[in-house]
Amino acid sequence: MLEAVIFDMDGVIIDSEASFLRSKQQLLHELGVEVDVSYHYDFFGTTSVYTWTTLKKTFGLDPSVEQLIERANALREAVLREEGMKPIPGVLDLIRHLHDSGIRLAVASSSPMADILHTVSSFQVHDCFSTFASGGECQNGKPFPDVFLLAAERLGADPAACLVIEDSRNGLLAAKAAGMTCIAFANPDYVAQDLKEADRVVTDFASLTVADCRQLLV
Q1: What is the DSSP string of 24-72?
Q2: Which H/E stretch holds residue 183?
Q3: Which one of 66, 83, 100 terminates a domain?
Q4: Distance from CA of residue 88 to its chain's centroid?
Q5: What is the mean pLDDT of residues 69-79?
Q6: Residue-range definition of the domain harbouring residue 165
Q7: Amino acid 180: pLDDT
Q8: Residues 6+ apart with CB under 8 A from 183
Q9: Parallel/antiparallel/unpaired status of strands 162-166 and 4-7
């Protein structure tokens, strides 16, 4: 029986992947590194610390990891100010319908807690969620299961009775490692990722119902 639904945030609740890609590309360009945008796809779902630690090592970047993250965040904030924060179509209605059906909800994201709280408040769905978990609170980021297990613990829910909604392969693998059922959102606006381990793949949240979510854990 379904006890709780745990949402990833970036790429699931907020359409933020484009801003992450643009800020990473711009910062690498500033540092004299040119890569194809597809290079960044392997970092979807991971923490900023992991991303920039890896990039610093790979390309021999001079700034510290902390400086790289600070500059990348500043560039991303500039993109968001220019374009505004946009929810993934249909996801806010799904969140409200699940909440109104009495299903407990959580957000488990690799993003900092401040970003999580700002996003759900901006989209006026903060009160729909029982709890939040950030990758910054965990020893290991996705694809390790830590953040999803933390969310389940805070919900007081059995991981086997939790449904995760994710958009990245790293997040999908983390959910499965946590022993959870996973719906993968394959955004048709981005290059497809390998989501074959998902229990269901959707390309449109408008087609996903509360009954669909319950049925996956019958």
Answers
A1: HHHHHHHTT----GGGGGGGTTS-HHHHHHHHHHHHT-SS-HHHHHHHH
A2: strand 181-185
A3: 83
A4: 12
A5: 88
A6: 4-15+86-215
A7: 98
A8: 163, 164, 165, 166, 198, 199, 200, 201, 202, 208, 213, 216
A9: parallel
For residue 83, what pLDDT band results from cuts at 50, 70 and 90?
confident
In the sheet that 162-166 helps form, which strands lie side by side, from edge to edge?
131-134, 104-109, 4-7, 162-166, 181-185, 200-202
Query: For the chain, how big is the Rg over CA atoms in Å?
Result: 17
DSSP-derived secondary structure letter, 217: T
Q: Does the structure show a pLDDT above 80 at 45?
A: no
Q: How many CB atoms lie within 10 A of CB 18?
A: 15
Residue 17 pLDDT greater than 80, yes or no: no
pLDDT of amino acid 173: 96
- End-of-domain residue from the set 54, 83, 112: 83
Residue labelled with tokens 């907020």:
14
Judgement on whether residues 123 and 28 belong to the same structural domain of the protein: no
What percent of the chain has a predicted confidence (pLDDT) above 90?
72
